[in-house]
Specification:
Keywords: Carbohydrate metabolism, Glycosyltransferase, Pyridoxal phosphate, Transferase. There is one protein chain. By secondary structure, the protein is α/β, with parallel strands linked by helices. The protein folds into 2 domains: 371 residues, Rossmann fold; 324 residues, Glycogen Phosphorylase B (Rossmann fold, 3-Layer(aba) Sandwich), CATH 3.40.50. Helices cover 49% and strands 15% of the residues. It contains 34 helices and 22 strands. Helix 10 packs across helix 12 and helix 21 runs antiparallel to helix 22.
Amino acid sequence: MTTSPQPSNAEIDALIVDALNHRVGKDERAAKPHDWYTATVYALRDKVIDRWMESTRRTYAEGGKRVYYLSLEFLIGRLLRDAVSNLDLNGALERALRSHGFELSQLEELEPDAALGNGGLGRLAACFMESLASLDIPAYGYGIRYVNGMFRQRIDDGWQVELPETWLSHGNPWEFDRRESAYRVGFGGEVVSDGDAVRWEPAEMVEASAVDTPVVGWRGKRVNTLRLWTAHALDPIKLDAFNAGDHVGALEGEARAASLVRVLYPADSHQAGQELRLRQEYFFSAASIQDILRRHMQHNGNIRTLPDKAAIQLNDTHPAVAVAELVRLLVDHHGLEFDEALDITRRTVAYTNHTLLPEALESWPLPLFERLLPRHMQIIYAINSRVLREARKQGVNDAAIAAISLIDEGGERRVRMANLAFTGANSVNGVAALHTDLMKQTVFHDLHRLYPKKINNKTNGVTPRRWLMQCNPGLTSVIRDAIGNAFLDDTEELSALNALAGDAELGERIAEVKRSNKVALAAHIKDLTGVRVSPDALFDVQIKRIHEYKRQLLNLIETVALYDQIRSHPERDWVPRVKIFAGKAAPSYHNAKLIIKLANDIARRVNSDPSVAGLLKVVFVPNYNVTLAERIIPAADLSEQISTAGMEASGTGNMKFALNGALTIGTLDGANIEIKDRVGDENIVIFGMTADEVAEKRANGYAPREVIEGSPELHQAVEAIASGVFSPDDEDRYKDLMGGLYDSDWFMVAADFEAYASAQREVDARWQDTAGWRKAAIHNIANVGWFSSDRTIGEYARDIWKVL
């Protein structure tokens, strides 16, 4: 690999001014901050493009294997700081911009968050793309270029309000239209045969057109491509209808195409939403597979060598239809026999599972699937027949056959996308050790027995560039002073900090950085919510998608109990706390939206009560996204990872918090187990039931009412919420939510409450031991370098893709 010499300050300055004049079209005196931001991106982009083209030329020259990562989400966040850092141009850019009266950080704030994802799934995909480039692995990411993302969250009177995320309203200087990379994607119609040839004749066709974004690896080692699809109607306007006065009908085709790329995860609680979501998943999967095959044939010429030149990774079940699409194209367009096409597909495709929740394992009503994708339905039946015959040969019983089948025959017949992905892949991986073991025991028990070598574990990781170096430069600087620069290239070198964990001076310097981050976050919270919080309080943080299994409700009930205890026992030496919540609830998820309202109702009561002033504050920060996470995580003291054991696949927030020196309070769930093993039992606070204990309690009968009524603190808190203490405008608002705890408590909120409350008091005691807390924080930073996405991608590359 050859790299260009770093440009001088004068060269960078000249590039920015030239971009301002000739691309933005502004004179320096007339330019506004957003003009300087755009010019800075253009100037930096030129440097990125040089390395992008060099990376592409090198890949073609080497003729190696490419990785193709298919994901419905890529939560990439802002790209300016990422590119500047990875190209090591911070100093030159900062000096150039200061000569014009701007700070780089000031211009970074003008970049909108790319609304291309929602939560951990999409952020993981973004980390993986950056690590693929950093490890010099040729790769494409494939997804959808959402115009409005999922939604922008506003909080009105405590309620979540969903608004369109208009991140593209002023264009996106990072992206490149690739009009030559356009493919037709069909829906509906019928399958016709002409002798031995079979042809799908769709009733509707749309065009998928590529938009590329460069992904810069660490130190500019490689620049890979994130290719996102946008949709257009083949006939955007029916002029005869328009001229006849049917202005709406004339544009119906374009509106229908545009709906495919408008919103991430349209609500699928109704038939129209289900159909749109399935159309989205097929749209981007079909365009991506066509693009992969076109590139392969262009440069290799033999379709049978596809597994040697391409590794396709399915990020969850959203792109699972790619299995059927690849078989279809190999059979119908490349003339292969079905069994050979299926074999090639299986040797090319791998699948990552991200959930054990049955409702999150996608399945589609068979009539809907067959109506939209009739040829694919035939192919899925054909795959299923081979799988079930193989199972019968191995003596599998009827119950296991029913579980293995790609078609769920119980009640409404449905197409099981997880089973399609599993049977169509050469590898099926979980994302944490516990999750992978539970996959074998639960959702894929029978498929695992049929294909015992497919399931493997690849514990998730996060990119240390964004989640330490960029979001926490102060801490990065202190670490460099303490142990040198080796950790910048290999995060596991952070382990050198272990020998210094008891160093009082180092502990003081890290504490100073933490407090500075807390001061900055406190100011941001005040600007966003109007709530004043003290940076000297313990910042207790739970930021993630709002879902009952993630148990924000457990945190909130314990907050109410703590509120009662502080008021009842003012003589005790209470630790000042700021409870910080953030996250979005799916628009149709009633209980999750109610939990957001509860957080805000509790905040309103607690924050106005002088009896707990200075001791307890509660804040719900609106519109959680990557940029907000980058502000909150470096300022956190305590990381809440309290999901019901056995229900969180991995988590990556837990890794980011620990890397930034927060202590974890959590259950033995997901990657918490591996974090505990790395940082040591004394440097983490674990509570609650294990996954086995949760399963046993559910199986043997669990009486939550007895648990609630047997715990005075829990009972008082639950009854206060249920009776309207925190909702005087609607006393019954939380009656059903609390009633669910009495009736079933599926997520074990009551069952784990006492253990959680006790663990929180342990946190209080630890916080009061300043030296001990600082030492534990340093051990966390030192021992979570293993949770780098570079390590994870290295394992994928060696074990699954065979590219290292």
